[in-house]
Amino acid sequence: MAEERGANTYCAEHTETPTNVRCSRCDKPVCPACMVQAPVGIRCREHGQAKKLPTYEVPPSVLARAIAAGIGIGIAGGVILGFALPYLWSIPYASLAAIAGLGYLVGEGVSRATNKKRGQSLMILAGACVLAAFAIGSAVAAARTGIQPGLFDLLALGLAVFLAVTRVR
Ligand SMILES: [Zn+2]
Ligand SMILES: [Zn+2]
């Protein structure tokens, strides 16, 4: 294969941007905007994903899957939580476990829907879906029993958000 060097080589994605850096796995030329610093050297976006990058940009199609998963689990989980909460409140720590577990499920769902991608947008999404799920659960529980969630449930919510966000951080 003929090797082009220096200013004659252009980024594979930004064909106007000259670069002499290549992905250490596929040898694709990458410019500073697309290069990913991996433990094994410079990588293209596609091959640099193994490393956790908080600023990694999630493509819109992947984000759409994540939103669908987060909202789906959030709504379903929230409704189930709402019906379960009145019973769980009578068992010590049961509501804590249920709310925290729901947070973990939302985070896991978002993570799996995106093929274990990570990033700030996914963290915000996961956190927001947990808050929405809790709001739905509280509303359903309050509608059925007239009881609003207590301080203990809010602490559980904090734990749930933490668990969801750390799944995609
Ligand atoms: Zn590559
Ligand atoms: Zn580029």
Low-confidence stretches: 1-6
Mean pLDDT: 89
Q: Which ligands appear in the coordinates?
A: zinc ion
Largest sheet: 2 strands, antiparallel
Gross morphology is: elongated
What distance separates the N and C termini?
A: 40 Å
Supply the helix-strand structural class: mainly alpha
Q: Can you write the helix and strand succession as a string?
A: EEHHHH
The number of strands is 2
Strand content: under 5%
Which tags fit this structure?
169 residues, 2 domains, two-stranded antiparallel sheet, 4 helices, elongated
Brief account:
The chain contains four helices and two strands. The chain is mostly helical. It is elongated.
Give a structural overview:
The chain has 169 residues and is mainly α. The chain folds into two domains: 1-51, no CATH class; 60-167, no CATH class. Helix content is 54%, strand content 4%. The protein is built from four helices and two strands, in the order E-E-H-H-H-H. A two-stranded antiparallel sheet has the order 1-2. Helix 1 runs antiparallel to helix 2 (94-113). The longest helix has 29 residues, at 60-88. The chain is elongated. It starts with 35 loop residues before the first strand and ends with a helix. One zinc ion binds at residues 23, 25-26, 28, 43-44, 46-47.
